[in-house]
Amino acid sequence: MLARTMSASKVEAGGLRLLGVSKMFWLGREQVPALTGFNLETQEGSFTTLLGPSGCGKSTVLRMIAGLERPDTGTIEVHGAPADELRRQQKLGIAFQDAALLPWRSVISNIRLPLELRGKMLDEGAVRDLITLVGLSGFEAARPAQLSGGMRQRAAIARALILNPAVLLLDEPFGALDDMTRQHMNVALQRIWSERATTTLLVTHSIPEAIFLSDEVVVMTERPGRARDIIRIDLPRPRTASMQRSPEFHAYVDRLSELLFAEDGRGDL
Ligand code: ADP
Ligand code: MG
Q: Are 148 and 181 in contact (CB under 8 A)?
């Protein structure tokens, strides 16, 4: 299945392209292989999700695309250029599980922060549009401690989008939220993504979340991680909460559960 994806992408514009990527970490005197021969190709503007057991290297993949780690072997290209280029052009947005907002700053000044750090002109209109997009109108002046967990994550996503990134990396952004809030966040994220056509890579532990949001779901092996299966999600967009009760949706849940749990019988997601 990977071969299909790889040959198809030769004729289409590339989104993310990781080829033969390996990464070792030192743990004391032991070398731990986090990833070996990791390959992934996505289409520009597509939404892709990494699913896999804990410790299989998902965060490492994101951190390497973001330039926070260097691969030992292999190449990483984003939109046809080396990943470094994307970083230099500040076209990358990142949001992690812990929203990491500055507690003493208001919502609006947290969202403005990336602009300030880079000495970019503040376009107040763009900041307000983004606040509306993530549904935080009226909360501009609130401090993070005055917000719910879901609102904090939405502020973090708005902050990740403020530089108008070409690529959005999301590492378990909703992992700490309850199911109801998570559903709302998934609907909001789908809307944000569809309005901006950003090439997105999400890491999640939730199979329904992966199916709801993705064009393709990449199932990884246990550490050292590789992309084992790529499942295309052929559900119409926009996807709705009620779609999650359809037989088609359940069939995807069953298939991905089998791929994740059945073969090794461990299921330690
Ligand atoms: P995942 O996000 O899939 O849970 P990670 O990418 O965080 O996995 O980690 C993959 C493996 O690499 C794990 O075994 C982890 O302990 C190890 N690892 C990750 N980062 C480091 C680091 N900075 N130093 C040492 N080991 C690391
Ligand atoms: Mg992780």
A: yes
Quick one: which of 221, 223, 208 has its CA closest to 255?
208
Binned at pLDDT 50, 70 and 90, residue 13 comes out as low
Q: What is the mean pLDDT of residues 144-152?
A: 90
Which one of 26, 223, 228, 269 would you pick to mutate in the ligand 1 pocket, going by the greatest count of ligand atoms within 8 A of its CB?
A: 223
Closest CA to 38 of 50, 20, 56, 17: 20
As given in the structure block, the two tokens for residue 181 are: 């809030």
Please report the atom of ligand 1 found closest to the CA of residue 23: 12
Give the distance, in angstroms, between the CA of residue 235 and the centroid of all CA atoms in the same chain: 19
C-alpha 252: how far from its chain's center? 20
Answer yes or no: is the C-beta of 190 below 6 A from any ligand 1 atom.
no
Residue nearest atom 15 in ligand 1 by C-alpha distance: 55
Bridge partner list, 26: 31
Predicted pLDDT of residue 96: 80
- Ligand lying closest to the C-alpha of residue 34: 1
